[in-house]
Amino acid sequence: MQLYLPIAEIPVNIFVIFAMGGAVGFLSGLFGIGGGFLLTPLLIFSGIPPAVSVATVTTQVVASSASAVVTYWRRKAIDFKLAGILLAGGVFGSLIGVILFDVLQSVGQLDLVISLSYVTFLGAIGGLMLFESVRAIRRRKSGSAPSARRPGQHNWIHGLPLKVRFRRSKLYVSVIPVVGLGAIIGFLGTILGIGGGFMMVPALIYLLRVPTSIVIGTSLFQILFTMAAATIFHSMGTKTVDIVLALTLMIGGVIGAQFGARMGQNLRGDQLRLLLALLVLGVGLRFAVDLLLIPDDFYSIAIRKGAGS
Amino acid sequence: MRCLVLLLALILVPVGGHAQSVSNEDLVTALSSDVVSIQSNFTGTEIVIFGQASHIARQPNDPSGYELAIVVEGPPQDITTRRKGRFLGVWVNREAERFQAVPSFYAVASSVDIGMMADRTVLDELGIGLNHINLAVSGVSNVPLSDRDDFRKAFIRLREEAGLYSEQETSIEFLTHTMFRTNIPLPANIPVGDYKVKSFLFHHGEVVSQTEESLAVAKIGFEQITFELAQHYPFFYGVLAVMLAIFTGWLAGVIFRKD
After folding, report:
1. What pTM was computed for the model?
2. Each residue's pLDDT tens digit, A108-146
3. Do B238 and A247 touch (CB under 8 A)?
4. What is the Cα–Cα distance from A211 to A200, expressed in whole angstroms?
5. CB A252 within 8 Å of CB A18
6. Is B134 within 8 Å of chain A by CB?
7. Which CATH architecture has domain B21-219?
8. CA dihedral B122, B126, B129, B134 (to 10 degrees)
9. Does B137 contact A at CB distance below 8 Å?
10. Which residue of A16, A45, A55, A305 pairs with B78 in a disulfide if CB–CB is 3.0 to 4.6 A?
11. Does the beta carbon of A47 lie under 8 angstroms from any beta carbon of chain B?
């Protein structure tokens, strides 16, 4: 069934979009990720204008994280103070992101920056996850016990000034890295149309030493509000949030996520991380290939002013 | 032989002149609809242009020099055409050319090959045919002069591939000696706005009569409300999108609650 999208101004097959939302939702439920980094490229490759794809996925991420936040809230697995400070940074980063998005679009380098960022971040994070999960699987196979992490361990971040106590996370840490982390992820999320959970979670665990039981709920909570801000900024700045496309994706996404979550319970953690690492690397590679191969068409056009711009 | 040609010319010229001064070639055209409305089920449509050119006595397969061209033009746009080049091993957009106030949609239908209808200068002036559209470029451009034509060709090719520019020669069908019709397909991705439908009647390479009609392409109903909300009340639209997302997420969280 073809449905005309009011903002993207093209008709799409609504079932295809719904299925895409469902498939990405399934993976996000399986791996406990937002899935924005999969959905945005998928939409772009299927012919939705990149600006609309990025802006609309921020809205979809709001829905998928809201769905998960409900669960973590009930379990009291959210550090609201930490999330609040991350969020302050996130909103600021997101605002800078929207401004840069506009500038890049007008000079014609938005696609390049999106591709390069995907290659860099997905490549780096996918590579790290692959390395880590392969090591974990090997260790499990050889039977040796993993080395226990000492909770009191400190790194250079814990030497920074402006320290604040986070009771829920049992942390006493400077606000500078917290705001900075929020800002970087808010910025990237807005430019790339991703929630950034797959970057936020490792950063909170390895850099700030937030307890793992608190990390996911807190990260989701801050992503929810950062992406809500990004949706509003995109609506006001680029005017490319397509509410019909977003709604279709979210309904598919939240349903798919339930099935994914159920299946995820039957798989081992290190196996899941290995699969996710391969998935992340695959998407990054796809962007890299596009940048390196000789393009099919050297020319492209972009409407700058007037009807349909 | 030369005498014969001269004789023929002498006979023909006054006759031609006579026909033009006496017969008043009136062109009348009508559109199948003056509004194209875009709703949620819009997947493109077509408009039919009917017309009558009186006193032309056109014979099928033996045209007496009377030919028709119909141009459908969408609202103007500024469009940047970019070309990729290799930079540090990566393909990036390098040169750019900005075309100003070019039609967002352009379709031309004609009764004969466009090149045979009139001289290049006439076609250029009226903007009839894809090779004759006026594509004004902005002064600021990093495109070398020798490559300007490549950009122009690429621009038209990309617009043709998007279905937004088209040329259908010999697609005007004569129903009688004087009555004609043609269909212009409007693809699903047509921009909204005010369109112009211009019809030209040529006689031996000169325009003897022309008409212009307007066609509105507009979103209606839900599509229109959504679009206008996003354009005029963007903050409210953004908040609405967020609320819709939170509600959908919350609802799913409640419906699929495991405990």
Report:
1. 0.79
2. 788 788 888 888 888 888 888 888 888 888 888 887 655
3. no
4. 13
5. yes
6. no
7. Sandwich (2.60)
8. 110
9. no
10. A305
11. no
